[in-house]
Amino acid sequence: MNHQIEMLAKRLKLSWIREHYQEVKAETNEEFLLELFKKEVENREERKINLLLSQAQLPKTGTQRFLWEHIQIPQGISREAALNGDFIHEKENLILYGGVGTGKTYLATLISLNAIHRFGSKVKFFTVASLVNHLIEANQKGELQKVMKQIKKLDLLVLDELGYIPLNKEGAELLFQVISMCYETKSIIITTNLQFGQWNHVFGDPILTEAVIDRLIHHSHLLLFTGESFRYKESLI
Description:
Blueprint: H1 2-11, H2 15-20, H3 29-56, E1 71-72, H4 79-84, E2 93-98, H5 104-119, E3 123-127, H6 128-140, H7 144-152, E4 156-162, H8 169-182, E5 187-192, H9 200-203, H10 206-217, E6 220-225, H11 230-235
Parallel strand pairs: 2-5, 2-6, 3-4, 4-5
Antiparallel strand pairs: 1-6
Helix pairs in contact: 3-5, 6-7, 6-8, 8-10
């Protein structure tokens, strides 16, 4: 009997029930079934979240509370809406601008975690340099469309450290393709230490730079990080 139950549960892909059904105690058949189904659903939700977290490839974060004191937030979005990822439903972007070490990447990671846990959002985190290298390699192998399809399935794309490394012509054009594809179809978070007027140093072409900025700032919110580097301050303690 037990073997048949396990085989049928496996056939129906009820993994939690197959492994744990003997642990469930209930007074009626209805309560027993209800508890089985609840546990199976909870298990599937947990596995889904873990898979989304694995696919997102987020940087590791500490457990310290995020400090908003040195961040200027524009009208049109609140701290809670930004942190909880509410803007993702509206296909809006966040641009996190400020100096090195001021918490931009940390906030982008927290937003990504909340979007995954709260909404089951599909998120992918890249540094700009790593994404561009990935795109160039895929283009050389004839696999660019495959990568683009993967990005197209996302709800949120995080591009970290825009401005740290200037891009060559191919890399700049491929990154523009990604940003153009995401325009009004999904959300992007950009972290950067450069003002818009300096982005030409990254993309190397004023027309391309203008096209990138035009797509990003439409339906976007600019958060300004004005504090000192947390890493620098911690090194002085």
